[in-house]
């Protein structure tokens, strides 16, 4: 028995270590810094102290923000597109789950949105499951470690968009040049009005047709937030190329792919308006690291 003891102990150690590594990678929450909330969560009710907004089931309008949501049906897929026009780029913001930057710190898109007074929100890039990829949020640089070959979306303080390759420029340099947000997922879908992905291009090992999330800019301070349902009998989902085609068809000059699959969620006026799903069997939100939103 003694001659097998070390082998048994080694096997137990190896199993425990493997479990710890998996837990550390995907489960254990680590908070690195606390984020000061941008507001008290009440901006969407009052229009920041101005006249009451004009609100319907599919639209919102006040002196600074105009949102119209249109539901499309293409490629056997339901697509929600929110047309957003702003008076200032300050109303295009991001937020982190639990107001904390860290690893595996997550919450539902709807919860993060409500906590930050969002009128409209979509899931972001799920930075918290990655060890690299730029993280710049609301002018604060949290991570300056590039992912090789990754295209990132830079949103500048004036609201303009730029697609960059992370290894070609540091996040610090972008911050100094006026960057306000950097989202690191990708790829770019549309650049200068032209489709920027191939028909066979895909994210990692994702299935061809998926729930998708994307953001685009049509012209200065005029944006579109897009989420497609997928993986269900009612909605098949889109390939990256089909998503790029759609973004181009609605006029996006620049469009960028965000985290999709079970993360794809669009929130408007206090409600999730799409059908988020991971497995196609149950409709429920996946907890994520961050959101992109419109609000005060």
UniProtKB/TrEMBL annotation:
The keyword Hydrolase applies. Coiled coil: none annotated. Residues 116-294 form the Phosphodiester glycosidase domain. It comes from the Bacteria. InterPro entries: NAGPA (IPR018711). Keywords: Glycosidase, Hydrolase. GO terms for molecular function: hydrolase activity, acting on glycosyl bonds. PANTHER family: N-ACETYLGLUCOSAMINE-1-PHOSPHODIESTER ALPHA-N-ACETYLGLUCOSAMINIDASE (PTHR40446). This is Phosphodiester glycosidase family protein.
